[in-house]
Structure prediction request, 384 residues.
Amino acid sequence: MNLYKSEKQTIFYVLALYLSSTLLLITTLFTGYYFYKQEELIHTEKEILKQYSLTLEETLLSVHENSDEKYEYPRFKNFKSAIYDIDKNLIFSTLDTKIENLDKDFFVKDSNAYYVSSLKPYYLGAAYSVVEKKKKPINILNDLIISAMIVITITIITSFFLVKLVLKPLRDNLRLLDNFIKETTHELNTPITTILANIETLDAKSCDEKSMRKLQRIKTASTTISNLYQDLVYLLLNHQISSQNEELNLSEILNQRVHYFSQMANVKKLNLNVDIKEDVYFNADRQKIERLIDNILSNAIKYTNKFTTIKVVLTQHTLSISDEGKGMSQDEISTIFQRYRRFDKTQGGFGIGYSIIKSIIDEYGIKIDIESEIQKGTKVTLSW
Prediction:
């Protein structure tokens, strides 16, 4: 039983859910931290500009008290400034940018931060002062991105090992079940072969009608068990055995498989309408082609109604098998290749037939077309 694919899918889905939720949490936390640091930086910038504004005000006071009619506007190393009159007209400025609006006490424009304050009394005729400094860049963004990548990487590695650890008991139990099925399947081989061989040696002519019917039922049941056994062997061992491809005479193989299932068809009073073109060849593994034909043919026999006809037609590049059974809906056809998918619980089987069919046609590039109509029947066509 090959669980590697389903195991990978489980790991993928769990990791996807875990990582997406973790990523969302990390993004939320880091975004919140980023905006917090941004607000903190703005607050710091504003406090610094307030101090610069006080320095400017003290300097203006000194100039106002010690100057005559002419004075030199003060310059500062750490900041630039401007003063405006009561009507907000510019008196003098060393700013890099022209300021249009003095309504906000703090704002950022381009790459500079500005602080506006009112002056009372009006030193040098100024009612408003503006101080400007280069805005300090927020350098934490790159650090946050690097930190996030490190956290996500650690989370991926940790979560992968956690998922593997959680799945280990399940894998161990499935491995035990797998070994049990393999051993049980192996033990079935000898009794099935013995039953079929002994049935073939019985002389049907020496049996009365009642015994003949019993013999037919035994043979049909044995054929069903044998077919199920072959399917189980294929599922269990297919991934371990390489294909032995050879040039096969499909016409001969199809005739043999129709004959093999003829007893099952007779029990349901089915008419096998066979049209097989002679000497049709195909390069493939014989056992796999037999599994392919057997599963399509056995499904047709199993799900068709009594006293109806099953048509088997082989041409140079197509094989079609049609029945007059209950049919399938389009929704059922779309999920027919899923392993263990069964649509009729009243019939036997495990729902593995079409899963086997799918793996074989994919290996050999065979196209399959399923036409079905409720209460009218199903037609399966293979083309190559």
